[in-house]
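WARN no homologs supplied; continuing
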Amino acid sequence: MQITVDNPASAPQPLSPYYSQVARIEHADGSALLFVSGQIAEGATLAEQTRGVFETLTALLEAHGAGLADVVNIRTYLTDISRLDEYGAVRRQFLTGTPPTSMTFEAARLFRPEALVEVEVVAAVPAR
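OK structure emitted
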């Protein structure tokens, strides 16, 4: 097993130097698990921020040979859980296959005060 932690150059860079965006745990057969740090995005609305988050997640996964279809677990943090349907409408545009396991939490405050949503994922990448 090999563990690599990085910030792929082909994806948006982290908002802080104190964390890595992706931890890749590669198995001997070439399959891997990707743990992607929580992502936030700019935008005036929850929908805009959610779209930006999923675009960033897509870029981070693609940098490791994966995609949103490989996501097996997703954790979402919303500053207002009553807006879950608004978030879900955008999420369904990106996660179109079998839904991954999921947890959604309400958080009083996120990493940046203007952030309304933060999402982290785990993806399983099949052997090449």
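Helices lie at 46-62, 84-94.
OK
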